[in-house]
Amino acid sequence: MLDGRADIAVHSLKDLPTVPTAGLELAAVPARAPVADALLLPRGFSGSASLAMLPRGARIGTGSPRRQAQLLRIRPDLVCSEVRGNLDTRIRKLDAGEYEGLILAVAGLSRLGWSDRISLILEPPTMFPAAGQGALGLECRHGDEATIRWVSQLEDRQTRLAVDAERAVLRTLEAGCHAPVGTWASWKSPETLHLEAILIAPDGSETLAAASSMHQPLAQYGSGNALDAAHELGANVAHLLLKQGASRYLV
Q1: How far apart are CA 164 and CA 216, in angstroms?
Q2: What is the arithmetic mean of pLDDT over 242-246?
Q3: Which member of 7, 15, 95, 116 is catalytic?
Q4: In what helix (H) or strand (E) does residue 209 lie, and over which residues does it extend?
Q5: Which one of 66, 158, 183, 243 has the fewest beta carbons within 10 angstroms of its own beta carbon?
Q6: Whose CA is closest to 45, among 109, 120, 119, 121?
Q7: CATH 2.60.40.10 fits domain 8-34+131-249
């Protein structure tokens, strides 16, 4: 985009750095897909799935420190390891017996037609998603007003405020997308955005948690005031984590 060969980039927002690249801007965030993670079990499994029913020492495919820490908080005996390849390859490895389970995002599974393989949806407080999970981010060149005006029509304001609050947690903590941080902003009413965040020791032995809410009149949704309030909400929650000693897990 910076050299003009492309005008728009579409990102999975959870993978987009919270510090913007000079010369680029996030022009729109469309309506969000489901934010949760999911447990996939080998093909042929029948019955009610739960983390408790996994065998002791079960091998779980996930390279995400956030997911690993949250799994180990519940089941310290689980063996979490990196799983490489595209979605088809990962599921093939699961069915071949290389893993007893996989943890993947519900949104990605749904978009690629694999919803039928979801054995268990892992929602907060069992597992908190990554900042911006389930959302797409449409990025344009800063100053390209024509493209920005066109792309901005895809903006979903409630989604934007929620993900901006979540991303402000990471930005304030100076944590990357691979930090063991989970965040979840949800609308408790049309005017109340509630933000929760957790930071977990990599081995699952300690959990730091913080939460706060903002109340924004509907008339201000389209203003910069609402975005500023969302950023402040995320920063406040991050500072609550820092007061609990979050820095020791962000090295």
Answers
A1: 14
A2: 95
A3: 15
A4: strand 207-215
A5: 243
A6: 119
A7: no
Phi first, then psi, for residue 247 (nearest 5°) are -55, -30
> Using CA atoms, how far apart are residues 90 and 98, in angstroms rounded to an integer?
10
pTM score of the predicted model: 0.93
d(CA 173, CA 64): 18
Map residue 137 onto helix, strand or coil: strand
User: What is the phi-psi region of residue 91: left when phi exceeds 0, alpha when psi lies from -120 to 50, beta otherwise?
Assistant: alpha
User: Rounded distance, CA 93 to CA 97, Å?
Assistant: 7
Q: Would you say 54 and 40 are in contact if contact means Cβ atoms under 8 Å apart?
A: no
| Residue boundaries of the structural domains of the chain | 8-34+131-249, 37-122
Residues 176-185, mean pLDDT to the nearest whole number: 87
* Cβ neighbourhood burial of 16 (10 Å; 0-12, 13-18, 19+): buried
247 CB neighbour count, 10 Å cutoff:
12
203 labelled catalytic: no
Domain 37-122 belongs to what topology? D-Maltodextrin-Binding Protein; domain 2 (3.40.190)
Helices (H), the chain: 65-74, 87-95, 106-111, 145-151, 157-173, 224-243
Give me the pLDDT at residue 190, please.
86
